Amino acid sequence: MEFESQRIDEFIGRYGREQSALIQVLQDIQAEYNYIPKPALKYLAEQLKVPLSEAYNVATFYETFSLEPKGRNHISVCLGTACHVRGAQLILEKFERELGVRTGCTSQDGEYSLDRVGCLGACALGPVVTVNGEYHGHMTLSKIDKLLKNIRAEKKDE
Ligand code: FES
Question: What is the DSSP annotation of 95-131?
Fold first, then answer.
């Protein structure tokens, strides 16, 4: 999706043309485009008079931001310690096999993105997976089959 400077201006208008608005505007851009287009990041940095390197550092520091387009279904597998010791690596590998997508990548049809993330703050539910931000705890290899079946069924219903 092409970014529109007018839309970024609308986001800036919500928080003020201040350097302190950087993260909030980035959140709005991420929500709008499902990623942060690089031209949008450059435009935002100019508008807020933030060095581009600083804006880039913020956009790459937080896991909620992505500079690459994400799939319609964004799957994150927690590889934090608590999830890792409960087999999260096997969960991640199964998603890679089932979706034909490598970790950190998006499928060619744009349907799925797969990422590994640090602790999601729900260690008691480990291994934890999120699909489009929704938590799925106590993940097992067989639960992955059900999860993907549901996602694919939802797609058919659309
Ligand atoms: S380590 Fe996975 S939720 Fe904390």
Answer: HHHHHT--TTEE-TTSSEEEEEES--S-GGG-S-EEE
Q: Which atom of ligand 1 is nearest to the CA of 125?
A: 3
Two tokens, residue 60: 């790459």
Cβ of 120 less than 6 Å from ligand 1: yes
Q: Which two tokens stand for residue 118?
A: 């640090």
Asked if the model's pLDDT at residue 12 lies above 90, the reply is yes
Query: Kindly report the CA angle at 125 between 77 and 24, in degrees rounded to 5?
Result: 60
Query: Which of 63, 76, 77, 78 has the most ligand 1 atoms within 8 A of CB, as the residue to mutate?
Result: 78
- Dihedral sign (CA 120, 126, 131, 133): negative
Contact between residue 61 and residue 101 where contact means Cβ atoms under 8 Å apart: no
Q: What is the largest CA-CA distance in the chain?
A: 50
pTM here is 0.71
- Please check the confidence at residue 158 and state whether its pLDDT lies above 90: no
- Find out whether the beta carbon of 83 lies less than 6 Å from any atom of ligand 1: yes
Q: What per-residue confidence (pLDDT) applies to 135?
A: 95
Q: Is the CB of 117 under 6 A from ligand 1?
A: no
